[in-house]
Specification:
The structure holds two protein chains of two kinds. By secondary structure, chain A is of the alpha/beta class. Chain A contains six helices and six strands, in the order αβαββααββααβ. Chain A has a six-stranded mixed sheet with strand order 3-2-1-4-5-6, sandwiched between helices. Helices cover 41% and strands 18% of the residues of chain A. Chain B is mostly helical. Among the domains of chain B are: 81-227; 230-364 and 376-397, no CATH class. Chain B is built from eleven helices and no strands. The mean pLDDT of chain B is 83. The chains are: A alpha/beta, B mainly alpha. The interface between A and B is medium-sized, with 32 and 31 residues.
């Protein structure tokens, strides 16, 4: 009988300890910024592919948000879909299906924007990610990283990306970059310096979406 | 950093400086020769004495431990042997009780058969036919004095009548024999029955003989244990090693089963306790919960076997009264069945989750509709469910090898510990001997370093001895 009591005690203590543990520290939160300006509006299928990869890779308890980069992106209105997956695998699968449906609907109805406010999107993303209190926070930017701000939009101030990993995806070369590759290199170097200065833990550029998709996430 | 040349007396002439240094060192070593010899001797002596002391203590402890192991081993083996003998006696008792109960019936049956056979045998007795009447008539005819046709006619009549009577008698005789043959034929089932009864008795006697032989063997072993003879102890120790090896093998197989079990329920457990909850950095709550379920099953199995008195790891359960023990057995069985049911459901849930995830992956990777799966896809699901239900019961039997491991491990560990202590004692003893000799070697090595002053010392001593001898000789010469 003592053994029975001991085992029962072990079971309850395990459950008690589990209830006390901070589960968010082990979860991931990903915020994906999708550039919809110019030619990028036509590359939504590529962005959808990345989102599908994220949906397949993220686990129950993780968070995912997808937002578009527009003329002024520091707003919740630009968030296309956001979800924190349920702890139960069956529920999280249902949530993933629903998320995919919303992304598919967005991809069909996407419109190109006149300007590209990447910085505003980054600030919005950092705000969302910090709220999730996830252990691993990642901002994925599906853009050519060419910021183009509207008149009156102020973004030349220091931003806070402490503890966040930044991944630039599918950074395509512009026509001017082809003429002078230094423009492309300098653009990426500038962004790298800026996010590092803002406190980002890492800066990764992934252009080969067919073979290097696993670099997007810091897998456990 | 220290300059290398700072050691030199005359940095310009290195050789001279080194020579001076060597001479100085040699002089110092020569001066410290006696204390150094003393120190070497003391240190070596200390090491020798210490190792000798520790070695002796280790040997003594090993002997004590061996005696203790022997006592425990013999006590445990005696207990096991007594249980086995008890069981054998119980079996013999059952056989005897059962057979003795049947014996009067058997005997009566046998007696009836024998009586019947005896009666039949008596009835079959050969009864000679009665003497014919014509013999008296023949005697009368033979006494007639005068011859003629009358006697001849008479004899012919007699012959006819004899022939007639003979035929009649023969037919009577044959009929009588036919009847006896029929009776003998009728005795056959009785004889077979007797043979069968005798066979049964023989079988029972053989079984009884085998049991008696087994008891004899066990009693011999038991006597050996009581006498504490080394042969029995050695046999028991070897048996413990063999038992440990076999039990460990079975335990490893059981662990494999437990691992499969764990894999089967770890994923669906995340549905119950959450997939993203962690106890430590790498330990998921769902994994721990699955492990706890498996441990619970093993524990229930252990209690079940304990209450069935198959294992005896918990003396309290063994000493419980029968009613309480039966209740515990029932409770353990019910818990085990419930846990097996839970596991079977979890296995079903696992299959559903895996199928759901596969469908999602298909949706994410392509827009084509997923192919419908036939009844073949149900086979793994059924297999998983059956495994989920059966594995807990299979895991319950792990208590038997566990008990064997617990009992034999003590003996094996004891033997290994004794051997280790003896080995260590030997090594220390050997080290002591080496150090005792090593003192002389170190002293000689030290003397090599101061060989020149030593030579000079010997030369001076020899010179002094020569001078004093000369002085002693000179006064004599003068006188």
């Amino acid at each position: 009988m003592k053994g029975l009591l001991l085992v029962s005690l072990m079971l309850f203590s395990a459950l008690f300890v589990s209830a006390c543990g901070d589960s968010r520290m082990h979860s991931q939160a990903v915020y994906m910024l999708v550039d919809t300006s110019g030619s990028y509006a036509k590359q939504m299928n590529k962005a959808a592919k990345v989102i599908n990869y994220l949906l397949a890779t993220l686990n129950p308890g993780d968070s995912l948000a997808v937002a578009k980069v527009e003329t002024r992106s520091f707003t919740e209105k630009d968030i296309v879909a956001k979800v924190t997956f349920d702890k139960r695998p069956s529920q999280s699968i249902e949530q993933k299906r629903a998320f995919k449906a919303r992304i598919d609907a967005f991809a069909k109805a996407v419109h190109g924007s006149a300007y590209t406010d990447i910085t505003g999107g980054l600030i919005q993303a950092a705000e969302y990610l910090n709220e999730t209190r996830a252990g691993n926070k990642t901002i994925v930017i599906f853009s050519d990283m060419q910021e183009d701000l509207d008149k009156g939009t102020v973004r030349d101030f220091p931003i806070d990306l402490k503890g966040i990993r930044i991944v630039a995806l599918n950074v395509s070369k512009l026509g001017t970059d082809n003429a002078d590759p230094r423009l492309y290199i300098d653009r990426l170097a500038r962004w790298k310096a800026r996010v590092r200065k803002a406190g980002a833990t890492d800066w990764v550029v992934v252009n080969d979406l067919d073979n290097n998709m696993e670099s997007i996430l810091n897998t456990r | 950093m220290i300059d290398r040349n700072s050691w030199l007396f005359w940095p310009d002439s290195v050789a001279l400086s080194i020579l001076a240094l060597v001479v100085l060192v040699m002089l110092f070593l020569y001066a410290a020769r006696k204390p150094m010899h003393g120190m070497i001797h003391s240190v070596c002596n200390l090491v020798t004495q210490s190792t000798r002391f520790i070695s002796r203590w280790l040997f003594l402890s090993a002997d004590n431990l061996r005696l203790r192991n022997q006592a425990v081993l013999l006590a445990h083996s005696q207990e096991s042997a007594a249980t086995m003998i008890d069981r054998e006696f119980e079996r013999v008792g059952n056989i005897i009780r059962k057979d003795m109960q049947e014996f009067p019936v058997l005997q009566r049956k046998l007696m009836e058969e024998v009586t019947k056979i005896d009666d039949d045998y008596r009835r079959c007795g050969d009864v000679p036919p009665p003497p014919p009447e014509w013999v008296d008539a023949l005697e009368s005819v033979s006494q007639l004095k005068s011859g003629g046709d009358i006697p001849r006619k008479l004899l012919e009549d007699i012959n006819k009548s004899i022939q007639k009577i003979y035929d009649k008698t023969i037919s009577e005789y044959r009929r009588s024999y036919e009847e006896r043959h029929k009776m003998l034929k009728g005795m056959q089932p009785s004889l077979r029955s007797v043979d069968k009864l005798m066979g049964e008795m023989d079988k029972k006697m053989v079984s009884l003989h085998a049991n008696a032989k087994q008891i004899d063997g066990d009693m011999t072993k038991f006597a050996g244990m009581r006498a504490k003879d080394s042969k029995t102890e050695h046999a028991l120790t070897v048996s413990a090693f063999v038992q440990l090896a076999i039990s460990s093998l079975v335990m490893v197989i059981a662990l494999g089963g437990a691992f499969i079990n764990y894999k089967l329920i770890a994923l669906p457990m995340s549905e119950m306790v959450g997939a993203s909850d962690y106890i430590t950095d790498n330990l998921r709550t769902s994994d721990v919960a699955a492990l706890v379920i498996i441990l619970m099953e093993a524990s229930m199995g252990l209690f079940l076997l304990e209450s069935l008195r198959i294992t005896q790891l918990f003396p309290k359960i063994a000493s419980m009264d029968d009613r309480m023990r039966r209740r515990l057995m029932l409770a353990s069985l019910v818990f085990l069945v419930i846990l097996a049911g839970i596991e079977s459901s979890l296995a079903l849930m696992r299959d559903m989750l895996v199928a759901d995830k596969a469908a999602l992956m298909h949706d994410l990777s392509s827009s084509a509709p997923a192919a419908t799966q036939g009844w073949m896809s149900k086979i793994p699901m059924a297999g998983q469910m059956i495994m989920g239900f059966v594995l807990p019961f299979a895991l319950a039997f792990v208590a038997i090898p566990l008990e064997s491991v617990v009992h034999s491990l003590r003996t094996v560990m004891g033997v290994l510990l004794v051997q280790t202590m003896r080995g260590l004692g030997f090594v220390l003893r050997f080290t002591g001997v080496v150090f005792r000799r090593f003192a002389g070697v170190l002293e000689s090595a030290y003397d090599i370093m101061v060989v020149i002053p030593l030579m000079m010392e010997r030369w001076v001593v020899a010179l002094r001895v020569g001078t004093s001898a000369k002085e002693q000789a000179e006064p004599g010469r003068a006188s």
